[in-house]
Amino acid sequence: MKIYSISVVLAPPSGASTILSSATDLAQFSFYQRGSVSEFMTFMSKTVAERTPQGQRSSVQENNYVAHVYNRGGAEQLAGVIITDQEYPVRPAFSLITKLLDEFSTKVPQSQFNNPSSISFPDINTYIQKYQDPSQADTIMRVQQELDETKIVLHKTIESVLQRGEKLDNLVDRSTALSAQSKMFYKTAKKVCGNATSAFFRI
């Protein structure tokens, strides 16, 4: 079981989202691939946060990888996204997101949300290390009852969360968050794997 990426995202109801804090564990990828994979993790996190309605939890599955997202909305307009392997259990993932958002809200003033470079939230690195073992989430399972009563929407592919007429290839081409190297990496992986939506995960 593995957590690859964890992010706190500013996700307004309209317009682009912004990563406020994030951490990754990409040790399984080669040194030369990590930069591009990290950019795609960020790209996917922003994409699913933007397209998950406020107040909703959803899991977006791509082969052996799952992006769990909770768009909490409200005045702060925060969302949490965790990208894991398929074996990582759903309930601890959402318990972790809930705890992460609560702690972030407590420690980071909302006045800093518009200036992400000013945000210091080192706790997120502790989260991605400590909760690689989902049993550690037992300490935060007090939200279990709430989650049991909340429907989690499961999407089989990232394409299923895109708006009608949107294509992932077009989003990649238009993205200013992806470097030319990462876009080339994506296109090469797509040709090799034959699956655009999960190419960067199959390396």
Report on the biggest sheet: 6 strands, mixed
The helix-strand sequence is EEHEEEHHHEHH
Count of individual helical segments: 6
The backbone outline, from C-alpha atoms, is globular
Summarize model confidence as the mean pLDDT: 78
Beta-strand content: 15-25%
The order of strands across the largest sheet is: 2-1-5-4-3-6
Distance between the termini: 18 Å
What's the alpha carbon Rg, rounded to whole Å?
16 Å
- The stretches of 5 or more residues where confidence is low (pLDDT under 50) are 194-203
- Compute the number of strand runs: 6
Quick take:
Residues 139-199 form the V-SNARE coiled-coil homology domain. It comes from Marasmius crinis-equi. The protein is of the alpha+beta class and 203 residues long.
Q: What does it look like?
A:
Its main location: membrane. It is found in: Cell membrane. Keywords: Cell membrane, Coiled coil, Lipoprotein, Membrane, Methylation, Palmitate, Prenylation. Belongs to the synaptobrevin family. With 203 residues, the protein is an alpha+beta fold. It contains six helices and six strands. It has helices at residues 31-50, 90-107, 123-130, 144-148, 168-174, 180-193; strands at 3-10, 18-24, 56-62, 65-73, 78-85, 152-155. Strands 2-1-5-4-3-6 form a six-stranded mixed sheet, sandwiched between helices. Strand 1 (3-10) and strand 2 (18-24) form a beta hairpin. Helix 1 (31-50) crosses helix 6. The longest helix is centred in the first third of the chain and has 20 residues, at 31-50.
